[in-house]
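S.,

Sequence below, as promised.
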Amino acid sequence: MKIALIGYGKMGKEIEQIALSSGHTVILKIDINNPEELTKENLLKADVAIEFTSPATAVDNYLKCLEAGVSVVSGTTGWLDRKAEVEEAFLVKNGCFFYASNFSLGANIFFVMNKYLARVMKGFPQYDVSMTEVHHTQKLDAPSGTAITLANDIIAVSNIKTNWTINDQKLDHELYINPIREGEVPGIHTIKYNSEVDFIEITHSAYSRKGLALGVVLAAEFSLGRKGILSMTDLLKF
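The prediction came back faster than expected:
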C-alpha cells in the first residue's frame, strides 16, 4: 500500500513507523514546510491518504484528495461543523472517507462501554454525569474529538442532558467537560456519575500514540477498494 501522509508531526511519524513495519510505503509526506507539494499529481501516486493536521486545513485537504480519487483516513478533530458537507462530497463523487475521533482499539471499546453505562444510568437521575479529558499542550482543540463523541453518545440516550459545555458554571441539562492541557499526555478520558452518596467512574488512558497509529494503519488497509463513509464501527464490527 502506497501512503500519502498529510501531517508529519509526532502522530504522523508514529504512523509512518507502523506503516513501514507492516510492509507499506510512504510516498509523500506533507507538513508545514512543504504544503505546496500537496498536489493532485503527487496524490495520484498514493493508494490512500492519511490526514492528521489541524481543523483549519483538514477539509481542504480532504477535498484535494477526493479530486485525485484517493481514499482518505483522517483523525483530525475540531472540523465537524463541516462534516455533512464533506460526507456529501465523498458520496456524490463515489469516494472513500474514513473518519474517527480516536483510532485506538481500547478507546473504541471504551465508546461501547460508555454507551452501555449511559443506558443503565438513564434510570438513575440522582447521578449527575460529567467528564474530564487530559491531553498534551500541543493539542489545538478543546474538548477533544474523543470527548465530544463520548458526550454525544451520552446525550443521545439521556432524558436530562441536552448538550455539552466546557463552562463549569453549567446548567442542569448540560454535560460538563473539563479539558486539561498539560505535559505530553497522549490522552485520558474519564466519565464520572456522581451522587450524594457515591460515584461511578470509568476511564480510558493511552500510554502512547502507538495504539492510535496502529488503528490508523488498519483503517487505511480496510479502506482499500471500498467506497463511502467508513468508521471504526465498520472496521471493528462492533
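The domain at 105-205 is CATH 3.30.360.10 (Dihydrodipicolinate Reductase; domain 2).

Coffee later?
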